Amino acid sequence: MSTAQAHPKVTGRRLPWAGLVLMGVVLGGAVLLRAFAVRPLRVISDSMAPTLRVGDRLVMDLWTYRFEAPEAGDIVVFEPPPALARSVAEPPRHSIKRVVALPGQVVQVRDGQVWVDGQARHEPYVAEPAGYTWGPERVPEGELFVLGDNRNASADSHAWGFLPARYVTGRAWVRFWPPERAGRP
């Protein structure tokens, strides 16, 4: 028996199914990531300007709030609760706002500032001081007080009330578009 017959020649060709298996694994992983961990999101309003602008593209983290509650200062993504859906002609599929006060805290908006538990909040990200007054009211258990950074151009808790935490679907994790503004919002 010759050596050529005992050892078949390797040509560099892979088995045709190996590429299909690899493609299936990559596609399956992408589907699982999108379903359970992250999701792309496009900003469609200026209610969070200057932090987020129309056309910004974000990655929404779907994982964090499965294990911990939102904190003050977090930028959350949520489905519109019934009060918001009733207050606008065409409710969006998702809204993005900043958590300002948590359950049990007393929140008030006066003199252009947000006050939580009697303390004025330092908010360098706000577009301009709020031109309205609201509260004081205690945030109920299981709910959040959320505001847009563009206080005078945002349909948020000052307009439609507290956000039931169960409507929060994720947090704005990272902006990837436009490239010059990429990073944590």
Automatic annotation (TrEMBL):
<dbReference type="InterPro" id="IPR019757">
    <property type="entry name" value="Pept_S26A_signal_pept_1_Lys-AS"/>
</dbReference>
<dbReference type="InterPro" id="IPR019758">
    <property type="entry name" value="Pept_S26A_signal_pept_1_CS"/>
</dbReference>
<dbReference type="InterPro" id="IPR000223">
    <property type="entry name" value="Pept_S26A_signal_pept_1"/>
</dbReference>
<feature type="domain" description="Peptidase S26">
    <location>
        <begin position="21"/>
        <end position="177"/>
    </location>
</feature>
<dbReference type="GO" id="GO:0009003">
    <property type="term" value="F:signal peptidase activity"/>
</dbReference>
<feature type="transmembrane region" description="Helical">
    <location>
        <begin position="17"/>
        <end position="37"/>
    </location>
</feature>
<keyword id="KW-0472">Membrane</keyword>
<protein>
    <recommendedName>
        <fullName>Signal peptidase I</fullName>
        <ecNumber>3.4.21.89</ecNumber>
    </recommendedName>
</protein>
<dbReference type="GO" id="GO:0016020">
    <property type="term" value="C:membrane"/>
</dbReference>
<keyword id="KW-0812">Transmembrane</keyword>
<dbReference type="InterPro" id="IPR019533">
    <property type="entry name" value="Peptidase_S26"/>
</dbReference>
<dbReference type="GO" id="GO:0006465">
    <property type="term" value="P:signal peptide processing"/>
</dbReference>
<feature type="active site">
    <location>
        <position position="47"/>
    </location>
</feature>
<feature type="active site">
    <location>
        <position position="97"/>
    </location>
</feature>
<comment type="similarity">
    <text>Belongs to the peptidase S26 family.</text>
</comment>
<keyword id="KW-0645">Protease</keyword>
<dbReference type="GO" id="GO:0004252">
    <property type="term" value="F:serine-type endopeptidase activity"/>
</dbReference>
<keyword id="KW-1133">Transmembrane helix</keyword>
<dbReference type="InterPro" id="IPR036286">
    <property type="entry name" value="LexA/Signal_pep-like_sf"/>
</dbReference>
<dbReference type="Pfam" id="PF10502">
    <property type="entry name" value="Peptidase_S26"/>
</dbReference>
<dbReference type="InterPro" id="IPR019756">
    <property type="entry name" value="Pept_S26A_signal_pept_1_Ser-AS"/>
</dbReference>
<keyword id="KW-0378">Hydrolase</keyword>
